[in-house]
Structures are given as C-alpha cells and as structure tokens.
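Summary for the steering committee. One of the milestones for this cycle was to obtain a three-dimensional model of the protein with adenosine-5'-diphosphate bound, which we needed before selecting residues for the alanine scan. The sequence and ligand used are listed below.
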Amino acid sequence: MINYTEVFKKMPMAILYVKCEFLENGFLTMKVEAISDNLCSFLNMNRKEIINEDFFKILPDFNNDVKFTDMVKDCNNENLNYTKYVKKLMEFIRITIQKINETNFLLYLDRCIDTHLLEDIHNEDKIFFIKDKDNKYVYGSEMFKSFSQYENKDIYGLNDIDLYGEEMGGLYLKSSEKFIKEMKPYGRTICKLNNQIYFLHRNAIYSNNEVVGIIGIFENIMGKIEKINDGNIFTGIVNNIPDHIIFKDINGVYLECNDRFLKDLNIKREDIIGKANSSISELNEIHVSTIKSDLEVINEKKRKIYNEQMNINGKLLEFEIVKEPFFDSYGTLIGIIAIGRDVSHRTEIERLRLEFFANLSHELRTPLNLIFSSLQTLKSTENELLKKNEKINKYINIISQNSKRLLKLVNNLIDTTKIDCGFYEYKPKNENIVNFVENIAMSVAEFAKQNDITLVFDTDVEEKIMAFDLEKLERTMLNLLSNSIKYNNFPGRIEVLLNDCGDTFNITVRDTGIGIPSDKLNVVFEKFKQVENRLRKRSEGSGIGLSLVKELIKIQGGIIEVKSEVGVGSEFTVKLPVRLLENEESFDDSYYEDGNEGLVTRMNIEFSDIYI
Ligand code: ADP
C-alpha cells in the first residue's frame, strides 16, 4: 500500500498542508499539519519548528495581511496566487493556495526572482534597493545606506518621501509609480544623489504577469558623461561661454549648470543642484513658465524655443531659451538640456528694422497715392480720349486696379508695423455704432450685388451710442466683408448682424462661402498665413488682413472669434466692450472729413484684390 505521508514528504516543492480555523473576529489561524522536506530547506528551518505551529508564526509577514486572509477565505475550486516580499527570506515569495476541503488547504511556496540574480547584485557590492508593488522599500543594500541614511533593517516599509523628504521623495515616488503602472520590464532614469549623478536602472519583478516589485540599481555615471568639473579646456569654455547651460532630469530637477548661469543669477551651486524650480527662490519669477516649458519638451520630445524676461543684476533682459530633450543610448528620454542666451540686442535691431520698414512703406505710399489720384482725375473728367479708345480705357483700369491693390498692401504693412512698434494709437469717440456699421454694410451691399451676392443687415437695437475707434472699426468691417465676398460662392449671401449683449456689442459677419477647415481656424489670425485652397484661386491676398483685424480689435479691448464649416460658410464675430467716454475734447475729427466719399475710396482699395 502507498504511504501518502511519505509521498507528500518527498514532493520536490515547498508545500504545507494546513488546517484553517476562521475565527469570528475575522482572524484566521492556519495550523501546519504536514510539510514536504523541501519546505524545510526553503525556509531554512527544521521539521519540529514547523509542524503543528501556526503558519502566521512561521512567516509573520503574512500576519494581519487582510488581502492574503481574504484570498484564503475566498479560495474555492481554482487555485489562487499571492506574492509578497518575505523579510525573513529577503525574497519575493509566491504562494499558491489550493483548497482541499472546507478547512484544509495546501500552500505551495516558490521564489519570484532567480536567486542567482540577487546573489550577483549582493556580490558586486552594488547600490541597490528592492521595493514592493506598493512602492514600499523592503530592502536596501549596504551601499544604499549612504543615500537613504537608513540601516537595512530599518528601511522595511518606508517609502521615498520617508527617505528623501516631500519634494525629492515625491518626485521619485511619482516616477516609480509610473514605472509600476506601465508594467515595463526595465526602465532607466537619471538622478543626482550626494553630489554624484547616477543612472537608476529599474527592473520589474513579475509574478503571474503582474509587477510585484522593483529592483533598483544605481550606476554612477559621473565619469561617463562630459566631465564638467575636471579643469580641462572644455570645462573652461562651458563655464565662460556667455550663455546659460543647464542640464535637468525629466522632473525638472537641476543636475548641472555652467558657472555663467550661477554668476548671472547670483546663486550658489549648492542652492540649485538637486532641486526643482519651484523650491529655488532665486528663480521664483520664472518658475511657472519654466515648469510649463519643461513639461512641453518632455511630453513632445522635441526641441522648443522660448522667450523669457529675466532680471540680471537689476536689468530686465530678454532671453531666448532653447530646450533640447536629452536621450540616452537606448533612446530613453532622461533629461533636458536648456541653453539660455541674452537676446536683448535683437529687440533693438528688430525696432530699427520695423522703423526702416515703416519709413519704406510711407515712401511707397506717397508715389502710389499720386498715381492713384491722377488716374481718378483722368477718369472723372470723362475724357473724350478714354471714351473713344477702348484700349486706353482698359489699360487705365488695369493700372488703377493694381495701384489700389498696392495701396492696400502698403496700408496694411504700415499698420501692422505701427502695431508691432507699439505706435498705433487708440482714438475712440462716442458714436452710434449701429448707424456706423449699417452705413458700411449698405455701401458694400451695392458692390456685393454686382457680384451676385446678397448682403443682409440685421440688428436687435435701433441705436447704440458707445465709444469706439471709427477708423479701426471701418478697417475691420471692410476687411471682414472683403473676405466674405472673396471666399463666397456665387450666387452667395452675407449677413451682417448686430447684437447688444450688455457688456459687449457684437458684430457678426456670416457668409455662405467655401469655409475654413477646423484645423486651420486658429491660424487665420496669424500674420502671412493663408489657408491653402487649390480648387479656388479667384482672388489674391497677402494673409495680413485678419492678423491686422485681430490687433485692431485688441487695441479697442475687444476680441474676434471665428466659426466655420467647409462648404457651408464662415462666421466672424467681433465683440467690443461697451463703454462711454466722459471727455471727448481730445478727439481728432480728421477721419470724418471726407464723409461717404472717403468710405467709398477706402472700400475700393480694400476690395481691390477681389476679381470676379
Ligand atoms: P488674405 O489677404 O489672404 O485674404 P486674411 O488675413 O484676410 O488674408 O485671411 C487669411 C486667410 O483666411 C485667407 O487666405 C483665407 O484662406 C482665410 N479666410 C479668411 N476669411 C475667410 C472667409 N470668410 N471664408 C473662408 N476663408 C477665409
């Protein structure tokens, strides 16, 4: 007859046969009734120490572990697995629970990590730690003590915040949690501890396709990246170059910087290295924008250029900061290199360039105006010669049309340059805005009708006296209306709608034209940007109109919004703040001098790039 007890003893696995008692207070006792010989060597204990003892006494790590006791209670037909770091064995142990009957269970114990791996790291005197899946330290090597200040026996159950404090610990904890969540087998980050730079290699410990812990190994790479402090010629260059050079990890913690940066910011190396931006008081002014730009570079993994104003030795200087993501040889993003350069002189050059541009545009406008007005005179005198000679008439019209187009371009250039230089003046006046817009709309309606477009005007108020800049609003309206003709279908429709919304007065120009693709909606207000439309080349433009309109509205404290659907039409809404001027004496009335005639001329210029 087979002796089953003997067979059980000889099983080549670490097995316990336990009898459970489920106590009323939720506790559980598990008395060991039989074990395999293999278990004794696995636990390094002898038979007598185990048999008839409570399992929780033999492996106290499982004591009070509600997850484990619940698992035993819930175990039915299928076997369940539970993995845990066992302090006594200094290993992650996986227990497979098998239910035999209501009270009796078999527990199979095995290791999650190959013992050789652990022996290897122990032997090599490496700086390493082991954490469980809850990010609690369960082991730290002898050398790890120098970082954590904790003896190995005391580190059990602590987390990064306990070891490194709220700020640094918080960052480490976050990146560690991310690593566990991503379930990757391996990950590497860079960190600065005790004034040395390390790679932290994280290896996941798996059990049943779940990450149950991490082994983290530190590798000192001070000698492997460019030596910054070794006194060679390269160090001299890096430190004395008139640019700021900074190296940060992916959490925005400063790992290195050159002397120039420290000198300009009047800050000591030890006050910055190993710290994140938010805790460096000297960088308070720029910390919000720096955190934001660091994050952008990390997320987009590409070079980005930023402008930042910095106070250096009491002077406010303009800095251009190039941020470059830094990858290791495995292609993992491990940090950011930031290079900051004082570009204040460029602002001066830019000002000179704009001034030159403004002068040049004015110089162009004078002869153009002369050509244009001479042509107007020629035409208005109903010259017999023009009437008789169709050819001359045709060419005069071409010259006239094109001088208008040039005038429009030059006008727009002058205005944008003025705005860029900050020379554009806001000249508001209290006026009836309903009347003003209606007058423009009606003048344009005539022009639109000739081109098979119906223009409708509608308003929810008869009159609205408020302060606005007449010239700027006229430019805006003419620009929007010329676009709604240029990009309309024929026959088409334009609606000009006025709404008094209390705080704002809204003017909407809606058309039934080709529309703007949704991904291009935000670029139409950018200078020189045009939406490419190969199917349609009916009219031309410079892509400057809407950018100017946006500025003209901004100067008046308003905003412009756009909605559009390709093939259905576009809708531009100008929202102007409603306010009244108390003192209007300083108003310069010159704009109104030429009355409606002036409006028609300006309209002709504004609409000169529409050819139907
Ligand atoms: P442009 O001189 O090219 O008309 P704008 O700055 O006025 O320059 O407009 C920029 C671009 O926005 C235009 O090139 C056009 O592609 C698009 N756009 C502007 N208004 C409309 C509209 N009402 N319908 C469709 N597309 C428009």
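Key point for the committee: The pocket of adenosine-5'-diphosphate is lined by residues 483-484, 487, 511, 513-516, 524, 530-531, 541-547, 570 (CB under 6 Å).
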